[in-house]
Amino acid sequence: MAPLDLSSAWRFSACPHDCPSTCALEVEVLDGTRMGRVRGAEANPYTAGVICAKVARYAERLTGANRITEPLLRTGPKGTGQFHPISWEEALDRATAGIQHAITTHGPESFWPYYYAGTMGQVQRDGINRLRHVLKASRMDKTICTRLAETGWYAGTGAWGGPDSREMAEADVILVWGGNPVATQVNVMTHITTARKTRGAQLVVIDPYRSGTAAVADLHLALRPGTDDALAHGVAHCLLRDGLVDRDYLAQFSDFSPAVEDAYRRCSPAWAAEITGLSVDAIEALARLIGETQRCYIRLGYGLSRTRNGANALHAITCLPTLTGSWRHRGGGAFWSQRDLYHLDKTLVEGLDMVDRSTRLIDMCLIGRALTGDPEVLAGGPPIQAMLVQNTNPAVVAPNTSAVLAGLAREDLFLIVHEQVMTDTARYADLVLPATMFVEHDDLYTAGGHTHLQAGPKLVDPPGQCRTNHWLINQLAERLGVADRSPAFTMTDVELADATLTRSGWGSYGDLVAARWIDCARSEDACHFRAGFGWPDGRFRFQPDWPALGRFGGEMPTLPMKRQPHKRAKAARLC
Ligand SMILES: Nc1nc2c(c(=O)[nH]1)N[C@H]1C(S)=C(S)[C@@H](COP(=O)(O)OP(=O)(O)OC[C@H]3O[C@@H](n4cnc5c(=O)[nH]c(N)nc54)[C@H](O)[C@@H]3O)O[C@H]1N2
Ligand SMILES: Nc1nc2c(c(=O)[nH]1)N[C@H]1C(S)=C(S)[C@@H](COP(=O)(O)OP(=O)(O)OC[C@H]3O[C@@H](n4cnc5c(=O)[nH]c(N)nc54)[C@H](O)[C@@H]3O)O[C@H]1N2
Ligand code: SF4
Ligand SMILES: [Mo]
Predict the structure, then answer these.
(1) Ligand 3 site: residues with CB under 6 angstroms?
(2) Residue 311 is inside which H or E element, if any?
(3) Are 180 and 258 part of one and the same domain?
């Protein structure tokens, strides 16, 4: 890779958004100080020069009227957004006093640091956990986006990787199942378009809704929401009935058994049609397409995480390439995320050596019930009295909005929101603190949708008094008297990025900035599970050990056809 050309107005970065594409970016820096245009890196084989419209116009976000550029103190009732500016010194004093008061009066678990993935930067996103763990504050179960999908994927494969997403360009059939990449990760469409142009590949979309992706597909199967497991079982039935399965592959690489086969025998296309609302013909046609195409690439989306039945559905879908043996073919198999390629040692960033598992764990999706004092969610512990929110906007994105808003409006809750813009959540804060945007700080980025580890160096100075997440966490640690508990509390963000990379065997941060990215892809054999799946015996699990995968695993079906009970909301909350 060519070294960084400092004379150029075009510099390099990575998109920080919670989007599996994690695009390699080229950012124009005007006069050495201002952000100009943004474009996708042509040289990155996944980004391939394409980015979405919103990030192409990012400079507007940096300088938008909604940008917060100074610390703000609440002056009116909660939620009304009335604030007046204060100095950082006063803001830090007040933040420290508010957290300290909660800890003194109700114990450390009454402080609940709350975050998500507004930035996907490994240093800026996850450092809040370092403060949490050193204080023994309440822990947070990260359930809002991927939990069901990840559990369902892992249940069968025992691994977090899968066939390289660039191979979509070499597939003959691409099934986009529970995703809408036209809107949510445009780069998937780049590689699908290549396959369609060069190989005449067919695009099939399985989605209850006629999404933008469904609208451009060759075939759209609009099943009822939450019925994907039944569709997959119906397809499996046809594959077995019509001799389209690879018996040798099943024997060598899975736990396939007469009991599983017998269960599939009861999942006729008529049975699946009744549940999914699709026609028997459509299910039969899908089965033929999957059974007769070696290079059938199933791109799984996060939409399957949006239903109670999501983990079960995702697992049922991954059974299909196992039945046909298509996992082993280039351009074949199924793919959800490459998340485990990067093996980053996050001990320093997250304070993993300070975790106390006896501290209370609260499900982030239940923030409404937690803040309104539900004893079950509070697990018999103290009420939440203080929160620090970074990288998320729960007033809008968390379920049970009315309870969330009632909780955020509590007069006795001390709420600190560190934000780039005035969000609905920030409007409820006692203190709003101004945060940097990605080109204003240094960070490291891994990708779920592809295989590159990237650097995102600081390119311009932040406006006003915006400060990084890392800086704020370290300032609070110092004032709360715990900064001596981890070296990370006194490192700069560059030092922490550097130490994290070096400890993980990826070289220095400076090297990564110069190289722009490292392609961490595994060998083709490994990502196609050609020597076996992730479990110790190398066999894909048609019958997962659900209880070993999470708290509610005992309620999951043990055989195809026994569908997950829909009335039990808890059953879906695994892990
Ligand atoms: N109704 C509905 N609700 C949903 C979903 C849905 O589809 N519909 N999707 C769900 C899913 S999948 C997810 S992942 C969640 C996402 O929900 P959120 O995590 O809330 O989503 P984002 O908008 O990505 O990020 C939130 C905030 O982070 C801030 N931010 C970005 N970078 C930084 C930074 O460096 N520092 C600080 N301090 N702040 C920063 C942004 O300004 C933004 O306001 O929503 C979930 N909720
Ligand atoms: N522009 C934009 N891009 C984004 C985001 C954003 O806010 N805006 N958010 C980012 C985040 S945090 C995430 S997690 C990803 C999510 O991106 P995707 O993986 O595309 O997931 P979703 O958009 O949640 O849902 C995709 C599709 O799943 C369908 N779906 C819902 N229920 C079911 C079901 O039961 N079965 C099936 N088969 N389909 C179902 C929905 O109709 C939807 O069209 O996008 C990221 N990209
Ligand atoms: S497609 Fe996703 S990763 Fe790429 S620029 Fe847009 S938000 Fe960022
Ligand atoms: Mo998400």
Answers:
(1) 15, 17, 19, 21-23, 51-52, 55, 185-186
(2) helix 310-324
(3) yes
